[in-house]
Amino acid sequence: MNPVGRRLMFLAPLALLGIGGVGAFTLLKRMAEGDFDPRGVPSMLIDKKVPDFTLAAQSGQAGFSAADLAGAGQPVLVNFFASWCLPCVAEAAQLLALKQRGVALWGIAYKDRDEETARFLKQHGNPFARIGRDAEGKAALEFGVYGVPETYLVDRAGIVRWRWVGALTDVVVARALNPLLKQYA
Amino acid sequence: MIRIFLLLCLLAGPAFAVSNPGEMLADPAQEARARALGQQLRCLVCQNNSVEESEADFARDLRRVIRERVTAGDDDAQVMAWMTARYGEFVRLYPALNAQTALLWASPVLALAMGAAAVLLGRRRRQAAPTPLSDAERTALEKLTTP
User: Fold this and answer.
1) Which of A47, A80, A141, A148 is best to mutate for the B interface (most B CBs within 10 A)?
2) Which of A64, A163, B80, B134 sits CB 3.0–4.6 Å from A68 for a disulfide?
3) Cα distance from B27 to chain A (closest Cα, Å)?
């Protein structure tokens, strides 16, 4: 074997190993920051109109429909949550912080009893301007929800622009959500 | 005894999560279709279970939708379209053949072709005869081998 070939035999696997290492490191870092979910499934709703639904109101709150979302006059974050969902507790503070910033948050109580939802909101704060009840999870199926929490950004025209599965972390808000909120403001 | 055991093994079908008879459709033909459809759908919560096998809440919801659609008169393609419109191509355990999945479907053939190429190349290299010794080498060899 000529010298070039011999050097290549040593360097090529080393280069591959290096590229793989950098890739794996980036993935692990993004997973740790909550910026990437390897089990995530892309939403089919992105850049499409919100599916048709009408939700009964959580007691003491206003319910809403797809038409209400399109007529909100501002982009709305639609958050599927439940009192029995632990990551929902984890993201409660994040949602309250978003509300403080003036972001419109509408909640959908997924497969939850009215009184349980009320207890959850009392305990962890209520960031939502409206709350619809999806007791059987039918609206969730129309959205393509497969777990709670899930958050959708719906623009002024009622088009879904973004979906996040799992709790909203600081990194997700800073990297993904903030630029979109600015873009569709 | 062994024969009876073997017979029982043959008769035993795969385990289905539809343990609740209330979930099943009254019409056996429709129920069979719903089951076949459920076996082609991925439970997105457990990912490598089919909707028919999984005990997850999500899988139960999809089973109910399948049965609603089937009773409403949808054909298999329509039920699958309902699912992929909401949950994407990933929900199908057997992905459809299209531009995105072409490489996936071609992968067994590609792997076979690469293996065959490796075997052929290896054989050709082995068959190439070594270059004959030069005169100087021959004399050196003779000097080494003669006692």
Assistant:
1) A141
2) A64
3) 24
Place of tokens 């089951």: B35
Q: Are residues B24 and B85 in the same domain?
A: yes
Residue B12 pLDDT:
58
- pLDDT tens profile A90-149: 999 999 999 999 999 999 999 999 999 999 999 999 999 999 999 999 999 999 999 899
Domain count, chain B: 2
- The ipTM value here is 0.79
Range of the domain at B141: 102-145
A96 plus A172 within the same structural domain: yes
Decide if B85 touches A, using CB distance below 8 A. yes
